[in-house]
Each structure stands twice: as structure tokens, then as C-alpha cells.
Amino acid sequence: MSRYFTTDHEWIDVAADGETATVGITDYAQGQLGDIVFVEVPASGTRIEKGGDAAVVESVKAASDVYAPVSGTVSEGNPALEGDPSLVNSAAETDGWFFTLVLNDKGELDGLMDETAYKAFVAGL
Amino acid sequence: MRYLPLTDTDRTAMLATIGASSVDDLFIDVPEFARLTGPIKGLPLHAPELAVDRHLSALAKKNRAAGDGPFFLGCGAYKHHVPASVDHLIQRGEFLTAYTPYQPEIAQGTLQVLFEFQTQVARLFGTDVANASMYDGSTACWEAITMARRITKRGKALLSCGLHPHYVSVAQTMARFTGDVLDTAAPALTAETDIARLIDAIDSETSCVVVQYPDILGRIEDLTELAAKAHANGALLIAVVTEPVALGALNPPGEMGADIVVGEGQSLGVGLQFGGPYVGLFGCKDKYVRQMPGRLCGETVDAEGKRGFVLTLSTREQHIRREKATSNICTNSGLCALAFSIHMTLLGERGLRELANLNHELACIAADRLAQIPGVRVVNETFFNEFTIALPREARPIVRTLADAGVLAGVSLGRLYPDVENLKNGLVIAVTETTTVEDIEALATALTGALA
């Protein structure tokens, strides 16, 4: 499994088969947002475009869009976030995932950062 | 506040600082045709203060104020008795401010009032939650329609023919920019409402059904079946209350299944004030709270465990969502909400019930008395403090005749619906606790005379 990052602070884990992936926001992003009180995840079957709105995350001070790192079709929104949105604060890059999707085009991953590049990107902010 | 004079020296210094040679230079970007060049037509350049005072007093005397005699105007704005203590309390320096004081560190009193206001509105409406007030009833109604669209992801709203035409008009104006489809009709001078039409019209495209309760003619319907039909089709029921005192006597819409209840709170604590500022009320079911416009005040504890209040939810608003804000006309009417809340607190539950009963009893007396006038028919079978009568001829000139005789008789439907022929004989009569039996007799006598 390989993990990629976007400049909008989303992470995407691509499964070993290269066909499916899991998306969430980074630990850095959740730290910036503060206490997260609500997450709106996409319904399964939703077709999303790379860079388009995919989910909404609300903290006590801001509501932010989560963009799709790549294009695809949503297979599942994380049901755990409905009852416990603070999972994003406590486990942003594990249990606090937002949705899974079936990739349209693996080539779209090429423009994304790996963990080292993302760390350097965040350090420069 | 200090008076700061503006001398020629001051003006010259300011112009020199910004590099302009004259005041007119500052308006250079305004096209010449749009600039005023001479004095305003009909307005003198100046007049002594005393003369202005006399002139304006003379103009004011041309008005016939609501308290000057028998008064039966309603249709969304009602003359109720507001206790003197309401005005006194809202004018305390802690409350009366041009600023909206929401910072929890310095505004605990304001926030606690909003918290209590929300509680009162939610209980009155029978909804799980209510927000900290809106601009007014009509804009709250539109916000409810857009909220229903966000929830259902559908764009067709069914508006009852009993919805106030001004509320319909606000929705139509806004819908021009959002693309929502509004299905509406004018009412008829009948005891029946259009609940059956609405039930038939609900389909898979319907986002919501909007009904007024009591409606524009004062009619009252059980909304339970309509709510069930709307829900069965995946649509929401929005109830609009323009006379909240009615809920001291009637079942709250939320208990009949309404998903969103909005209203105008002017009746409690807020005077007629020539039509504003008023206060919009907004409540909904708990499961829709995240889609609610405006802001919500919550109770919490501080670092020392002491009870405190904060604004907790305003996720549709500009400061949270920026350019993607989805509530656009939800200005919190802080001071009017405070007046509402103080009046409600002074009344208490029992007081509100008694006030409602008094309103209804007087309205019954008025309806019975007017029904005795030859040619006059009371349209309603049910009503609270407002009902509609059908006259043997057009109501507008009769209202004018009665006004000249010192009786403000009511709102003619011809004024509200100038294009609807079969409504022009309709007159909506509102009666409140401020109406006396003598007022009712004066109306009946004057109307009998005008129709003779």
C-alpha cells in the first residue's frame, strides 16, 4: 500500500491492487482546524472529480471543503464519523478516514506528494 | 458623543493630504449624469430647527396611529400590549448597543438571553431546536425553503395559497437567483384551505410544502396528514406562524409533524413600528440542525466548571463558510429577540395561555357581531384572533370610508391581491387584547353605515 498527499492536506492510501483507495485529511490539517464537530462524507456511488468537492469538515471555527485527490467513484463514506467526528482529531490518518473510492485513472497519482515531500511541504508553511 | 465641527481649514487640510483639489474631485468616478447638481426639488436648502419641528409635527398628525381609536389591522403585524418593563429593560446599557456582542468573555448576559430565547421559541413551535433569531418572518420562510432544498436535494417548493402574499413575494424574488421552482396559488373566500390540493400535488420533485398556521385568512387546519404525506414522499413540511400568540391556544406545528417552523415574533415585545424592525423565529427538528441558517447559542462550562454560554453553531454563515455561506438573509435581530424573550418571560406559560384565550374570546365577539350586519358573511369556520369577512361589495373603498370616520377596519384582500378579482370583497379583521367591546361596536356601527 502506498500513501500520497496533496497540497490541500488530504492523504490517499492506494491499495496493493492499485484499483481502490482510502482518503482522509492529514494530522496537520486536523490540528489547524481545531475541534472537529461535524463531517459530511459522500454517499457511495458518488462520482468525484480530481480537485472537486468531495466532503465537508466543520470545526468550531470553520467549515472547510475536502477535495478529491484523484477522480473516482465513492465506494463508502466512513460511517463512524457521523456519531464521532472527533475521530478526525484523534486519528486523522487512520480510523478518521473520510471515504474509500475506486480509482478512475492511476496516472492521476503521479502529481501527488509522498510522505517525505509532504513533510517538507508542511515544514515550509 | 462629541460634536466634531468641520471647518474650511480642516477640509482644506484633508484635501491637501490626499491630493484632491476639491470635494467634487472625490466623486470623479461617479458618472456626471448620476451626480446631483442643484438642490433637491421640493426641499428647501435650510430651515430653522423650530420650523422643521413644526412642519414634521404637522406631517405626523396626518397619520392615524394604531392607538388612536378602534384598530383591526393584522395580516402578519399585530397590535398587542407590550408591558412598559420590556422597553425599560431592553434600553439598559448592557443590552442596547449597535454592536452585536457575541464574545463570550464579555457578553454572557446577551448570550444567556439568546439561549433562553431559543428555548422559548423551540417550546412554542414544538421543535427540538431554535436558532438565535432571524431578520424577520418572511426571510426566515425563504431560508427554510432553501434549507429544505439542501436536505432533500430537490428544487420544487409547494406554497399554500394561505401563505402571506408578501412572504410568497420574498420567496419569488430570491428564487429568481437560485432556480427554485415555487408552486403557489391565490386563496379563495372559502372556509376550506388548500390542504387537499397540497396533498395531491406532492411528488418526487417536491422539496417542501409551506403552510401558514393560522393562514392569511385566519383559517386553522390540522397539519398532521399533510406532514405524513410530505414525509412519505421524501419532502419536508414547513409551517409559518405570523401570530405567535396563537400558539398559546393551538397545537404547535412541530407536534403535528412540521420539520421546520418559522415565524414572525413581532407580536411579543415588539411594537408595530411602521413595519420593522421585526424578529424572525426559526426552529427545526434536531436531525436537521446542521442545515439550519443563522446561529445557535449553547450552554457549556468554563475551565473552572462554571456554567456559561457561547455561540456554538453557525455553520451556514459567512464567517465560518466564507464564500460558500448558504444562509443569506438571516441577520440576527438581537434587540427585538431580547424584547420577545422578556415579554415571554413576563407572561410565562400560564400568562401566554390566558393572553391567547383573551385574544380568541374578543375575536369571537367581533365575528358574532359582524355576522349580524346585513350582507356580511364570516368566511372562517375556525380562527384564532383574526378572521375574514366577505362584504357585498369591494372592501378597499369601505376601509377608506371607515378610516375617515376614525375606525381602522382591517386589511382588504384587494390590497394584498390586487390582481385577484374574487378576493376584492374580502376583509381580514384582527382582534387582540387591546381591542375593547366598544371598539368592536364602533366597527360594526361604522360598517353597517358604510354598507347601507
Automatic annotation (TrEMBL), chain A:
Any one GO BP annotation for this protein: glycine decarboxylation via glycine cleavage system
Annotated cofactor note: Binds 1 lipoyl cofactor covalently.
Residue numbers carrying N6-lipoyllysine: K61
Cofactors required: (R)-lipoate
Function per UniProt: The glycine cleavage system catalyzes the degradation of glycine. The H protein shuttles the methylamine group of glycine from the P protein to the T protein.
Assembly and binders: The glycine cleavage system is composed of four proteins: P, T, L and H.
Family indicated by similarity: Belongs to the GcvH family.
Protein name (record): Glycine cleavage system H protein
TrEMBL record, chain B:
InterPro entries referenced in this protein's UniProt entry, alphabetically: GcvPA, GDC-P_N, GDC_P, PyrdxlP-dep_Trfase, PyrdxlP-dep_Trfase_major, PyrdxlP-dep_Trfase_small
Catalytic activity: N(6)-[(R)-lipoyl]-L-lysyl-[glycine-cleavage complex H protein] + glycine + H(+) = N(6)-[(R)-S(8)-aminomethyldihydrolipoyl]-L-lysyl-[glycine-cleavage complex H protein] + CO2
Domain Glycine cleavage system P-protein N-terminal: 1-446
Enzyme class, broadest EC rank: oxidoreductase
Gene Ontology biological process: glycine decarboxylation via glycine cleavage system; nucleoside metabolic process
The protein's Enzyme Commission number: 1.4.4.2
Endpoints of the signal sequence: none
Molecular function per GO: glycine dehydrogenase (decarboxylating) activity
Gene3D superfamilies: Aspartate Aminotransferase, domain 1 (3.90.1150.10), Type I PLP-dependent aspartate aminotransferase-like (Major domain) (3.40.640.10)
UniProt keyword list: Oxidoreductase
Similarity comment: family membership: Belongs to the GcvP family. N-terminal subunit subfamily.
PANTHER family xref list: GLYCINE CLEAVAGE SYSTEM P-PROTEIN, GLYCINE DEHYDROGENASE (DECARBOXYLATING)
Biological role: The glycine cleavage system catalyzes the degradation of glycine. The P protein binds the alpha-amino group of glycine through its pyridoxal phosphate cofactor; CO(2) is released and the remaining methylamine moiety is then transferred to the lipoamide cofactor of the H protein.
Quaternary structure (record): The glycine cleavage system is composed of four proteins: P, T, L and H. In this organism, the P 'protein' is a heterodimer of two subunits.
Name this polypeptide is given: Probable glycine dehydrogenase (decarboxylating) subunit 1
Lineage, uppermost ranks: Bacteria, Pseudomonadati, Pseudomonadota, Alphaproteobacteria, Sphingomonadales
Gene label: gcvPA
